[in-house]
Amino acid sequence: MPEQIQAVKGMNDILPPDSARWEWFEEAVRALMRRYGYQNIRVPIVEPTPLFVRGLGEVTDIVEKEMYSFVDGMNGDALTLRPEGTAGVVRAAIEHSMLYDGGKRLYYMGPMFRHERPQRGRYRQFHQVGVEALGHAGPDVDAEVILMCRTLWRDLGLADVRLELNCLGQPAERRAHRAALVTHFETHRELLDAEAQRRLHSNPLRILDTKNPAMQALVEAAPRLMDHLGDESLAHFEGLCRMLDAAGQPYRVNHRLVRGMDYYSLTVFEWITDRLGAQGTVCGGGRYDGLVELIGGKPAPGIGWGLGIERVLDLLQQSGTAPPPPVPDAYAIVPDAAALPVAVPVCETLRAAGVAVLMHAGGGSMKSQFRRADASGARWALVFGGSEMAAGMVALKPLRDATTAQTARPLGDVSAWASELLKR
Ligand code: ATP
Ligand code: MG
Predict the structure, then answer these.
(1) Low-confidence residues of the chain, pLDDT below 50?
(2) Is 306's C-beta closer than 6 angstroms to any atom of ligand 1?
(3) Which atom of ligand 1 has the smallest separation from the CA of 270?
(4) Which residue, of 10, 44, 65, 114, has the greatest Cβ tally within 10 A?
(5) Which strands, in side-by-side order, build the sheet including 380-383?
(6) Is 279 in the pocket of ligand 1 (CB under 6 A)?
(7) What's this model's pTM, rounded to 2 decimal places?
(8) Cα(233) to centroid(ligand 2), Å
(9) Which ligand is nearest to the CA of 261?
(10) What pLDDT score does 323 carry?
(11) What number of other Cβ atoms are within 10 A of residue 200's Cβ?
């Protein structure tokens, strides 16, 4: 026997009936995007490696150690499986001059790839929904993208997701803060772990993100970026807070929220839950006013978020709010193969009328076909039995309701009774 081949570690198959929850979630997302006027964009899963190195920044977790990068053996191109969605969407917006006539509100859904240690809520192929609002300086659009997440939680029936916010200011303000930060950490050099030592001069802001308990006090005492912000940045942040207040959306200002990517400016935020253990951030985003220019476009502001679908579905399962997988309306039982030329077109007519019909395949006794019908969850069995067929009829047997008797309907006039099968 040839050796069995298994999926790549950290990359999951999504199988029925689980996949039905994915489809249900994707439908909820599409309905949300329609209401907010966000249009779908589909960009390649593979991009030139320099797009991410330049867009995300060299001293980021993703670029340093998480990217699936390879050389295309056919032509020597340096390529990368996309680790996130924003860089590709911004590249496409520039390449197709999408911003020439003003802003664009876009969304995407699909797989992302990061070489991380697989664990609950952390996979090597995972899936994101993301939005990117390009060409709008905010803070009204900042409030919009944040509040559309709240609407999604409500649509999904999720209650325990809270909002954290911060303002990263502009590059000059960050430079001033960075200098103060470096001074602070240098004075306490002996308290820094190896990673922090390494980041002290390359990316000291990321030290604030440390999960090392021994460094918490040092990090708490560090100078705050908020204290280095100028009037414009503060006005932007206060404008956003006012709109969130007015919309009744609570938030916590988290001064240590910096997020992984270099490209963020001004507003950054995360939606967090305590119900998923260590991987509690279900959605993260922020403003990236410098990114379009960095990738080679005419300067234009942008803001967006990325949501981890696996984490949201896990949360839905925890809270028991996901709907049960869909079941067929009817299950067609055909005890004698000679009846198939009658049964097949009847099922086709029913499906054309919107009825979900699962037709028994593979023959077998009436009894075994009824067992399948029961297991399918269908509300009705359509029995193409010998005596009914001889009378030009098909039997309708309710499978979930013992109080209703079996009846028969004419084979010649299917559309007259098709809608009966849709009633719940
Ligand atoms: P984390 O701190 O958990 O590593 P991140 O800051 O790297 O998250 P982002 O790049 O902001 O995450 O991605 C947005 C969202 O995508 C995250 O909030 C999370 O829900 C999800 N996500 C990120 N990495 C993974 C992964 N490896 N597996 C599953 N979901 C992920
Ligand atoms: Mg990460």
Answers:
(1) none
(2) yes
(3) 18
(4) 114
(5) 357-359, 330-333, 380-383, 393-398, 407-410
(6) yes
(7) 0.91
(8) 27
(9) 1
(10) 83
(11) 16
